[in-house]
Amino acid sequence: MDIEEQYGNNIVCRHIFKKDSIQIGSRWQSSSGTIVTVESICDLGFITYSWVVNGIKKTNEKECFVFQCRYCLILEDSNGLL
Q1: With contact defined as beta carbons under 8 Å apart, do 17 and 74 qualify?
Q2: Per-residue pLDDT tens digits for 12-49
Q3: How does 41-77 read in b/e, with b if 16+ C-beta sit within 10 Å?
Q4: Contact 74, 10 (CB under 8 A)
Q5: What is the DSSP string of 32-73?
């Protein structure tokens, strides 16, 4: 696990979290700087997440591993990791 600063946020890189340790409401950042928020996690391991574009909330769903290949956890006090 590595921690890097990107786009003004400290993010966890090169690490895959277990599904049970991902928190609803946690914020994640893509390599382009886009920030998404975890909305829900189903028992099968799919994560529903959201982001806002021009004031409109968008949502998508990805399998837990695939989600983490695209997004890195932003370290914030609310994650309980700092």
Answers
A1: no
A2: 999 999 999 999 999 999 999 999 999 999 988 899 99
A3: beeebebbbebeeeeeeeeeebebeebbeebbbbbee
A4: yes
A5: T--EEEEEEE-TTSEEEEEEEETTEEEEEEEEHHHHHHHEEE
Both tokens assigned to 74: 């932003």
Residue with the bigger pLDDT between 7 and 76: it is 7
Q: pTM of this prediction?
A: 0.88
30, two tokens: 């893509």
Chain-centroid distance of CA 75 in Å reads 10
Sketch the domain layout of the chain as residue ranges: 2-77
Query: How many CA atoms lie less than 13 Å away from 44 in the CB half-sphere?
Result: 5
